[in-house]
Predict the structure of DUF4132 domain-containing protein.
Amino acid sequence: MATTSPPPAADPVWTEGPDGYALALDGASLVCRNARGRRLKTVPKKVRESAEAEHLRGVLLRLERHERECVERVESWLLGSLPVPASVIARVWADPAWRELLTDLFVVPAGGGDGGFLRGVDDRGRIGVLDLDAESVWLDADRVVPVHPVLVEDLEDVREFALELGITQRLPQLTRAIHRKPDAVEAGATAVEDYSGGEFDQLRHATGRAQRYGFTVRGGYAVCRVTERGRPVQARYWIGSDAPDYGTETGRLLWVDDAERPLRLGDVGPIAWSEGIRMAELIHAGRRNTEEETTQS
């Protein structure tokens, strides 16, 4: 498979600094070499505080912001199983931040058909994948879909195949926890109460846990945004709205549509259900262990 290969790893690009020193970025670290070209284990203070060092730190901040933006964009594709034009993937593939996120994502053609693990793009803009027969193939599709794992057919088999091949994903896809809506759910209800009553000594502990896992907090709710069948949906889990240092207790989990109208549980799609339950479980798991406290007392 002839793909657009990533550029080979390069030596740091050195910038002249004060008193004959040179500075460079090596990954996320500022490095230095002396006038004889020997790389130093530490950066001298006068070099670390120089204008050249300040400029490189600014470059590093911009790169970190770019990487976060790439993660947010690819995750939005995943959380909506959104079709992505092959031309877009071809255009960003040379960028290491994009390429690291996209490599080995499990994708399928937007029009249906077998997919595989994304491995590259050729000069014609075709998407190359490693399919489930361990064969390198080109997808005959103008758009591909990074599939949310709850929608992957035979998910356990795909997970096992990836494990056998040693495939790792920069953005967790196949390893993401999924939750399928039970058949016994009360279709006309509008909330799940299974994660209510979780006690936190301080509200900031609950909000901090929500934010640590990438959820926004608004109006007392932890919020997870997804796209279901092309329409935006929000899962909302009540964590409290008092002062940050006050105790709090979690409440119901609900879903709302793009007009912020509560959805009946029977109308909540598989991605929104899975991501909402995942959010509630992650936050609820950080609650105070009241059962343990009762036993000890």
Q: What stands out?
A: Residues 30 and 222 are 37 Å apart (CA to CA). Confidence is low (pLDDT under 50) at residues 2-8, 292-297. DSSP finds eight helices and 16 strands in the chain. The first helix runs from residue 45 to 48.
